[in-house]
Amino acid sequence: MLLINAALTILFLSETYAGSIHDKRIADGTLYPLPAGSRLLQDLGFLAFTLPQVEVIMPTKKPRGRALTRAQKAANRRIARRRVRIEHVNSSVKRCRIVHDICRLRKAGVRDLLMEVCCALHHVRVRLTPWQLMV
Known about the structure:
By secondary structure, this protein is mainly alpha-helical. The protein has one domain. 39% of the residues lie in helices and 10% in strands. The protein is built from four helices and four strands, in the order ββαββααα. A two-stranded antiparallel ribbon has the order 1-2. The chain is globular and about 50 Å long. The model has no long low-confidence stretch (mean pLDDT 86).
């Protein structure tokens, strides 16, 4: 789990988990350092996840058997434009193949350390060629 700010730098990195664990379960077990009054942009994988005194921005889910209104579709598109930038940060971290491919290093803490190094490399890339701020 990554927390990313408007400058598209990584502010927080949770522990790494082996195997297929749902994002919501990881989010529930992690303490986030978000100040009161901040906004959290999340996708529908975190449907019931909330934090106290934090505004959650999430796309509207399509109701079963009905369509979304034009306003809801427009809001979902605005959110999707912001989410694309976040996915670019994820792909920048995964540019390091050791994070993307299967890691067979089993020693305790090595996977977390590898992820920290890959996030640090993303920060170096952002410093050398700054990205546009996320609106």
